[in-house]
Write a structure and sequence with these properties.
four-stranded antiparallel β-sheet, NADH Oxidase, homodimer, alpha+beta
């Protein structure tokens, strides 16, 4: 653990960018690449209970900015993702696991057992919501790491009107808009990474 | 975006490990390194509303395993982190931002404005809980990427008794155990990465 993997350097240097080059755009194929990487994040039971809405036209960005506290970066970054968690649907799990069963990795009975376990785990609305938030955040973080590895800057935003976003972008009733993630080319004038708390305040050994 | 950054390869190859080398241990300094990296993840307002409990003694692992559906990897991995989100405390924000104000990056009035905004944003228990889950998941995902870059395997677990974990590890009342993350050396016999849904099912353009 003495050499430094380039991925560690990225983690250490990542910033939350506020200023983006408004002339920079991303091709849809580049956006697809980002989401394909984000979707490599883990989810409980391999539920993949998420949805990424890539807002990249000026008109759609304007609609999003209006329900996101008028934050300029929503419009200035090449793309602003609405990262949604989806309330866990154990019924859907059979389909999500089927390719893994068919590939011979997972016995069919085990997939059925997972479905039963998921039914128990998400029996309450709070548990289902927690999983939606958790899954979306895991995907969003992987999206930000991927963006940085592709030479792009990003910023996570939680200051938005969730009902407004759901209305403007016609989210399904089981979709929870968990965070916005802007991705684009950084413009000059961004802050450095903000200082972190001393380790002793956040880490405990047991 | 044609060359492949090593961090992208890690994202593409990460697996959720179920089997760990039970003879492998991590020094506390290595655990500290992991958490220092995890805490580079972003949080809203730079709240850093998280806490990592590194469970690494056999006795503590046994206590955790008993409230985590008896999953063997909790005990077999070198360390199992209890990743907690903390219910947002806008009062604490002044201290979190102070080093950034003192370094001359952020005007003091802006830090006060953020505190006021956070007070509004987390006025309801659900909003505070969502932020706790979101922050912990962002930190947990960064922890897993960091572990992989250090040559270690990981697995996220959400199947545990949250009340039991809180009781066994004396979590503060504002601490929400969001997920467990095992980290250690992979043993033979792990599954490959599970198949992902087709992109068209999870990505939408606007």
């Amino acid at each position: 653990m003495t050499t430094t993997h380039p991925a560690l350097t990225l983690i250490e240097q990542r910033i939350s960018a506020n200023r983006f080059d408004a002339t920079h755009t991303l091709a849809d194929a580049e956006i697809e690449r980002l989401v394909r990487l984000a979707a490599r994040a883990p989810t409980a039971y391999n539920l993949q209970n998420w949805r990424f809405i890539a807002v990249r036209t000026p008109a759609a960005k304007a609609r999003l900015r209006a329900v996101a506290q008028d934050q300029a970066k929503v419009a200035e970054a090449a793309v602003c993702f609405i990262v949604c968690g989806v309330l866990a649907d154990p019924q859907a799990l059979a389909g999500r696991l089927q390719p893994f069963v068919e590939a011979g990795h997972m016995p069919a009975e085990m997939a059925q057992g997972w479905q039963q376990a998921a039914r128990l785990q998400y029996a309450t609305p709070q548990a289902a919501r927690d999983e939606a938030v958790r899954s979306a955040a895991l995907g969003a973080m992987t999206l930000m790491h991927a963006a940085q590895a592709l030479g792009l800057a990003s910023c996570a935003l939680t200051g938005f009107d969730a009902d407004g976003v759901a209305r403007e972008f016609q989210l399904a009733r089981d979709g929870v808009p968990v965070m916005l993630v802007t991705v684009g080319r950084a413009a000059p004038g961004n802050w450095p990474q903000k200082p972190r708390r001393p380790l002793a305040q956040v880490l405990e050994f047991a």
